[in-house]
Amino acid sequence: MASPDTIIFGEVAFQLERVVLSRVFRGGSKQLTGYTLSNMEKMIQSHYDNHERPMLGRQLDEIEGELHMCGWDRDYHPGLVAHLIKKFGTFPTNTKAKSAARKRGWTEPQALKEEVLWRIPKEYIHDMIIILDCFFYLSEKYNISLFTW
């Protein structure tokens, strides 16, 4: 189990995943249980509405194109996001995530980035910079607070 000081690594990965999913499955339920970045293409292919599938695929391609500008690798980073969530965990509730973010100053991108990069194990630094950059980019572009989910 992750410590309170390291859970933020999994939480950042989880928040990025939720932002991407919410942008691809726009208008859909915020309850995207079972949907992950790693299985998103499969979920699109098995989507119940045949007519929506091409649109969902385009939305995924659009988001991944934007994330690619931040260094995102669609063949590598979805699996890493899943690994970080599993290894470090997430806050048990959204309320706890938001509370911890406010208390520690993580609502500001620079403060969050400094905290994460100061604490993260060295083998994750490069990829965590990419994940944070993607998270901040989407948050700003779509005017979403950092800890929405």
From TrEMBL:
All residue ranges annotated as the Speriolin C-terminal domain in the record: 8-149
Pfam families hit by this protein: Speriolin_C
Stretches of the chain forming a coiled coil according to its record: none
Signal sequence range: none
InterPro entries given in the database record: SPATC1, Speriolin_C
PANTHER family registered for this protein in UniProt: SPERIOLIN, SPERIOLIN-LIKE PROTEIN
Protein name: Speriolin C-terminal domain-containing protein
Upper classification of the organism: Eukaryota, Metazoa, Echinodermata, Eleutherozoa, Echinozoa
